[in-house]
Amino acid sequence: MNHLYFSPHLDDVPLSCAGVISSQRAAGENVRMITLFTGDAPEPLSPLAQRYHAIWGRGDRPYVARREEDRQACALLGVDVHHEGLLEAIYRRGTDGEALYPTRADMFRTIDGRDDAIVDEIQARMLAQVQDFKADIVYAPLGLGRHADHQAVIAAARRLADSEALELRLYEEWPYAAGRFPKERPGRIAETLDFFQWHAEPSTTGIDIDHRLAVARCYASQIEELFDSDEAMVNELRAYTSGVGGRLPSERIWTVLR
Questions:
Q1: Once rounded to an integer, what is the mean pLDDT over residues 170-196?
Q2: How far apart are CA 249 and CA 235, in angstroms?
Q3: What does the pLDDT average to over 156-180?
Q4: Residue 183, CB half-sphere, CA atoms under 13 Å: how many?
Q5: Average model confidence (pLDDT) across the chain
Q6: Among 244, 139, 144, 156, which residue's Cα sits nearest to residue 193?
Q7: By CB count within 10 A, which of 43, 70, 208, 229 is most buried?
Q8: Which GO terms describe its molecular function (predicted)?
Q9: What is the arithmetic mean of pLDDT over 149-175?
């Protein structure tokens, strides 16, 4: 069985479903991860991009460090990772040179109408990876928080799954799934299923919480922004995974029904 995961950013898949991936690898199944928005920042930076660079604390080329974090996480998971080099929302501009997503609120609302071409580009990249990997199942974000980049990946994955008759599964983006982040639109499972008109069935997988924490800690540049501290991250992850599985730490994946 070949499992192909599409991660919008350099952390989304490993932060969300490291336990499921570990179970698949332990069963001898093949896993590949494609991280889409991994391109270095073009100049000049928008004020929003400048703010994120300051938070990340990785200098003028933060994606050099962030790509390495992603590779380290995937090494722990024992999976191949491909970086597609697309520019994430904070860097994209319209033909007039203006930032498409000048504020955080803009980024967590919807895809800007001037940004539709990004979906076509993502779908083309996805199709190439599906064919190269001979994927049996593809994985995309559920859409919690409605980040514009996540919405673009969802739209492309949906079209791809329909055109290629692929099984599509969805992962709950963490920490969005904890219901605290982002503050502009806290993640809610039922609301998200309804917004994207997902018809899907959930399944849970028990996980090794310590291994998942080790994977999460690979993304050192993101911990302060997302959680404030390592201790807060640990507490939040334990609470979320226990809530999914009852008493045992678990992750939840949704299979889209046809």
A1: 87
A2: 12
A3: 95
A4: 4
A5: 95
A6: 144
A7: 70
A8: hydrolase activity, acting on carbon-nitrogen (but not peptide) bonds, in linear amides
A9: 98
- CA dist 35 and 8 (Å) reads 6
Which amino acid appears at position 49 of this protein?
Answer: A
Tokens for 248, please give them. Answer: 């045992």
Tokens of 122: 């993502």
pLDDT at residue number 241: 96
The 3-state secondary structure of the chain, one letter per residue: CEEEEEECCCCHHHHHHHHHHHHHHHCCCEEEEEECCCCCCCCCCCHHHHHHHHHHCCCCCHHHHHHHHHHHHHHHHCCEEEECCCCCHHHCECCCCCECCCCHHHHCCCCCHHHCHHHHHHHHHHHHHHHHHCCCEEEEECCCCCCHHHHHHHHHHHHHHHHHCCEEEEECCCCHHHCCCCCCCCCCHHHHHHHCCCCEEEEEEECCHHHHHHHHCCCHHHHHHHHCCHHHHHHHHHHHHHHHHCCCCEEEEEEECC
The pLDDT assigned to 199 comes to 98
What are the residues facing 2 on neighbouring strands?
A: 30
φ and ψ at residue 240, rounded to 5 degrees: -65, -50
Res 144 pLDDT > 80: yes
d(Cα 213, Cα 216) in Å, to the nearest integer? 5
pLDDT number for residue 57: 85
pLDDT of residue 258: 85
Q: What is the pLDDT of residues 74-108, one digit of tens each?
A: 999 999 999 999 999 999 999 999 999 999 999 99
Q: Is 156 in contact with 187 (CB distance < 8 Å)?
A: no
Residue 226 CA to residue 238 CA, distance in Å, equals 15
Are 252 and 203 within 8 A, CB to CB?
Answer: yes
